[in-house]
# Entry
Amino acid sequence: MGIIINDKKHYLTRLPLWFIFIVLIGLSPILIGLLGAWITELTTGLPCHEGNCIWMALPWMAMLTVPIGGIGLIIFLIVIFIDTISLINRKNVPTTKSK
# Structure
């Protein structure tokens, strides 16, 4: 029995959702920082950089979250590979019917 992939339909539902979730967690400081800086520039009319805006200092946290997201993605791919092998083996095992 697989951890993430238990059926063939899970390749279309669980696989993309988990992949997107892991990538968003890894890139979240960059995305949040750029969005916050863009909103701050729109409201104040002043350019936003690390010296005058906390939003542009936030993407520096990506030095921590991108490697963690990369490690999470590698672990995710290993689990998917193991689940795929177990799914293939489960379908190839002949069933015996007792008479």
